[in-house]
Structure formats: C-alpha cells, structure tokens
Amino acid sequence: MTEKEYFDSQISSKENGENFDLKELFTKYLKSWKFFLISLIVFLALAVAALQFVRTSYDVTSKILLKNETATIDASGNNLVNNNPFSNSEKVNNEIEVLTSVHLMRSVLDSLSLQARVIAPDVFPETELYGAELPFKIVVDTIYPLAYETTLKIKIEGADSFSITEEFEDALTDSSTSGSSYGYNTYNYGYKIEKPYGIFHIVKNEKTTSKGTEFVIEFRDIDELAHDYVKKVLNVYVVNKDASVINIELKESNPEKGEDIINGLVEMYSYKAFLEKNAVALENVKFIDNRLNTLSAELSEVEMNVAQFKTKNELANVELDANSFSEQEIDYDRKLADSEIELKVLSSIERNLKRGDNESTINSLNVSSSNLTYLIDSYNKLQIDRKSLQRTVPENNPRMVDIRDQLSQLKSNILSSLSTSKQSLRSTIGSIKNRSDQFAEKKQRIPAMQQQLLEISREQGIKENLFLYLLQKREEAALMVGAKQDNFTVIDKAITDYESGSPSKKLFVLIALLMALALPIAIIHLKDILNTKVKGKNDIEKITSVPVIGEIAHNKSGKNLLEKGEEVSVLAQGFRMMRMNLDFILSKKKVQTVLVTSAIKGEGKTFFSSNMGVALASSNSKVVILELDKHNPELIATLGETKKEYGVTNYLNQPFNTITVNDMLIPVKDNENLFAIGLGSEQVDGLESFNSKKMETLMAQLRQEFDYILIDSAPIGKLADTLALSKYTDCCLYLVRAKHSNLEDLSIIEDVRINKKFKNPMVVMNDVSS
Fold this sequence. Notes:
The structure is a single chain. The chain is of the alpha/beta class. The protein is built from 20 helices and 21 strands. The strands form four sheets. Strands 14-21-20-15-19-16-18-17 form an eight-stranded mixed β-sheet, with helices on both faces. Strand 20, helix 20 and strand 21 (761-768) form a beta-alpha-beta unit. Helix 9 packs antiparallel against helix 10. The longest helix is centred in the middle third of the chain and has 83 residues, at 398-480. It is elongated, with a radius of gyration of 68 Å. 25% of the residues are buried.
C-alpha cells in the first residue's frame, strides 16, 4: 500500500461514517461484566422481594346491551311506550355516567358490607379475606368517624361466641386486656353491638375456624372507598361507537370480590332505574287522576250547557230540526196553495149559483168539505135526471116539478155550505200563514244557533277526547307501576380474565432483567458522555482523519529506556511495530527526519523519542535525537546520559562557527548507533532561531551523517516553535496519551492535516492499557 492509498483509505472511512464498531461496543461491555452481574443479582432480588408485597390485580369484565327505550307490551300486543308522552329515550353516554357515579358504587359496596376489612392472621404480607374465606360477616348498621381510627381484633372463642379487643390510634383508651370500657368483651353471633364508633352485628359464616384464632378488623370510609373504586379501578366504555354495548371493567386483586362488585353494580343500576321509573309512573298516575277529576267536572258543566241551550231553543238536533222546518214550510205552502185554490173554486161555484145558472152541473174538484161535496154531487145528479126527463116529459110534469124543487133546495143548501166552507178556508189560510212565518223565523235563526251549538259541542268533544285519552294513559301508567323491565340486557355476567394479571410475574422479571442491563449500560455511556479524555484509538478516529500509525503499551517497568533483553516485551514490540509501520506507510519516500510533538505537556514525547531511537538504531541504522523542547528539556536525562557543554542553542548562537556537530553529539551507552544532541545552555527565540541559516546548515549536516533524525519538540498546542521545524521534517508523529490527552486537543492535529502545516502527519497512541 502506498502512502497516498493509505491516507485516502483513512479519509474515506471517515467520510463514509464508518464510526460504529459493534465489536468494540461489546468489548466495552465485557470489560464491565462484574458490574453487569452485580446489577442483575440486585434487580432480580428486588423483583422477587417486590412480588412478595405487590398483589396481582386481574381484569374483571361484564357486558350489557342498552335498549333504545323501555318497552311495555299490553295484552293486545301494543307497545305502550310509543304512545307514552311521559317516557324518554335514555342515551348511552348518560347511562355510562350513571354506572360510573360514586353514589351507585357506594350503594354496591354498602350492600356487600365492605365497610369492614377482615385481615387474615399471621400472614405476610397481610391478606384481606373475602367471601367463602371469611369465618364471619360484619353487617354495619351505623358507623362514626371514630371507627376509622379504631382497629378491632376478633378472637374466636367457640362455636357460637367471640371476643372483641379494641385499639385506638390516639391510645387514649386502653382496652387491650380482659375487657372493654364500652361493654362486654365476649358476644354471641348475631348480637347487636353498640359502640361509640358504630353499631354493627357479626353473623357466623359456614366456614369453621379453630378456637383461639384472631382476626384484625379495620373500618373504612365507604364514601372514600367508592370514590377510589370509581376513579382508579373502574372503567366503563362503549365497545363500538356504532353499537350500544357497554363494557364494564374493574381491576381487583380478589377475583370473587371483583365479580361481586360488578354484578352488584349492574343489579343496583337496574334496581335504581326501576325505582326511578316506578316513582315516575306513580307521579304520572297521580297527575292523571287529578286531571281526570278536573276534566270530569268541566265535562259535566259543558254537557249541562248543551242541554240548556237545546231546551231554550226547542232543538233536539240542529240539522234535523232545520230539515224539519224546511219540510214543514213546504207543506204549509202546499196547504196554503190548496186552500187558496179551493177558496177560489168555492167562490167560483158561489158566483155561478148566484148568477142563476140552473142548468149546468157544479164541478166539485178541489172541494175538501165532504158535506159540500155530497150536496154538489146530489145537485149534479138531479140536474142530470132533469135533463134526462126533459127529453120525454113536459116541464109541468110532477116529476119535473119535484126535481126543480129539490134543485132549488139543494142550491140553497150549497150556497149556505159554500159560505161556511169559505169562512173556514179563510181561517185555515190565516193559521197556515202564521205557522209558516214562525217556521221561517226559526229557519233564519238556525245558522246562528248552529254556530253557538257547534262551539259548545266542540268544547264538549275536546274534553271528551282528552278525558278518554287520559283514561287510557292512566291504565298504561298503572300497568307500568310495579312492572320491572330493564332498559338493558346482560350479555356477559362478570368474569375474571386470569391472563390479565397485573403486574405479571414474567413481565416483572423481564423488566428487572432489562433494568439490570439498562443501568450499567446507562452508567457506562453516561461516563463516556461526561468523559473529556482520550481513552482509545476510536476516540481519535471519530475526531480526526489523521491515521493512527500505532499504539504504545503502558510502561509497567517504570524505566524510561528499553534495555537489552526486553525485545520480546509488549512495549518493545510496540516500538518495533511503529518502525515497521513507518517504513511501510512511507515506503516510496525516504523518511529521515521525524518530528515528535503533542498538544500538551506530559503525553510522552521524550519517552517515545528515546525508545523510538533505540528501536531504529537496533536495525543497524545510525540515529540521532535532537532535544528541541526548550521549555522542558528532559531527553538527555531520559537517555541516562550527561549533558555536554554545547548544544543546539550554542550552535545557533555562535558568532564564529567554532562549534561543530561532533562537539554536540552525546553517544548513548549500550547503543553504538544511537546519539543525542542536547538543547544547549543558550537562551534562544525558537521561532527566530529555528528559521535561521545555521539551523538549515545543522539539519543538512545531520542528514549527511545519520540515517534517522528524531526531533523531540515542544507541544504545538500553545507554542509556535515547533511549526518552525516543519520544513526540516519528513514526517510528524503526534503523541496522544490514553486517559491524559483531552478530546478537544485532537482538533489541533486535524488542523495540521487540513492546513498541511506538517508533512505526513500521523498519530501515535501512547500508554494504552493491555
């Protein structure tokens, strides 16, 4: 791999974001395996202990289907509610509010006698007894606030008796021995016990308990208990927004108790609804009865008004009377016409008779009088007989004379009868006219009377219809009184889902395992987040793209310089690998001058330069190390040599060039190819002196005489002296010490790479733990 390829591969890996190393992550965790093990043991122990104290709660559920309205069917099959103006359709949301009311829950808890809590003896943690587990049942009649501060201990004395010991929180009353200051200590089952804190009696249960067993009784505020149930553990909701199915869910540690509470809630909801509907129905009946009484009196008054109106106006039926008046008026007109015609006929007969017309017969048509008709018929018959005799006998014939006499007598009689008949007809015509006028007057008053009667009849009809309607509704309301018909159907009675146990033991253990892993991981990563020091190679690679040429292990020996016989040590192998990496990476370019620097003091520049010189010299290369850290010159001491009179500063400051390289060289013992040149005794301006011609001459001469030149320079974090040496170097090695160098100082070497301040910059990781 060439120098360019190596640097490009390093930069490419950074640009592609290959920063996450799963193996490194697991390695980091494996290093802290003891921490993980301790955390696992602690959390599992806590989980097991918590499961002993935390009681498992189960989901107890029930489903009910709400009907649209309460339907009541009568004997004929009619749905009464459809015509019942006093019933309202109940909405699903309203029913949910009723089911979740504290008042309803309180009634349920009261019916189940949950004001008193019975705790099993000698059980840890304490366990509440319920249902078949109870040796007795406490029925509370009245309870006072003092009861909530009182603890009872009930001891079974025999098959039919028990004793009570009271303990008060304020400890003002001491009744913990043989007796109680509030009455007898020993009671029989069923005996009514009256205490300052309440009135109750204890009923024996079928469950038998051995003599001497003691139970603890604690009284609870039923209102607070109901509130807690409703707000914390009861959940009532609609299963589907398009349906009227309500799901009732309760979380309870005792499944039997939970089922009793939910079933009791549904039953109490039904009973309360029944009482409410029954009360409404009774109020409806009462209201209808009052209204019926009022309507009955009003209806009687209206009917009396109708009767008085008809009597006063001589009416039976307006329409029939109007028709009758019309018919009678027509009849009177007809009679009047007939009477007038008859009168005219009689007048005509009378005129004819008075004119002396004794030869003609008389027309009796339209003559109503039978006597007159008889006389006329007799007269006409004699006329016919006379005319018949005139053809055969003379006028003086006795028979003719007799006939003439009879005709004269009949004529006189007819005229007399005509006068009487005419007078009678005139009287009849007057009477007919009077009656006709009366009927005409009544006929004219018919519309007004009809209107008045219609108004009275309309009022009568309205009251009659309302009276009949209320009678029907009263019967319907009376049928609803006492008729229990729920407005819901129970789909599922209360049932316990034992799979829903909360908290689940498996889940509890799983959470403990997760927390046992999460805590160490969190602490490890928190430690990483808060860490400001470089811990490993990955920290360097995350910040800078400058390649890491190698890692130097921690120096356990405490020696500053590697000695012979230590070639196989980890530290020596690290320096040898460093030398090989340097030759491999920069194989195409002869690396002769290597600058060793760092960001701050104490990162091991002098230690590295010394031992790197030893490693290079061991390959039969002639090596010289320059001590150019004017602020901390420790190279010669690290090599175990004594400083010479002259050094680099003396060489740079000499006016006559009398000091030579040989005057400055210090051979390192036991390393025939390794030499060192000290800083010198003169004070110099590093930036000025290192850029001088003499420095160029010195570096050129050293290049001719040595295979490798190592420069132990000052840190570049705060000083600019080292930058002046960049033009003499072929490579820059930037020392980073594990757990000592700051992460933010790595930006310095990244700046060196970006701005190309040194040739071939590379990082050396120093003091790495094994």
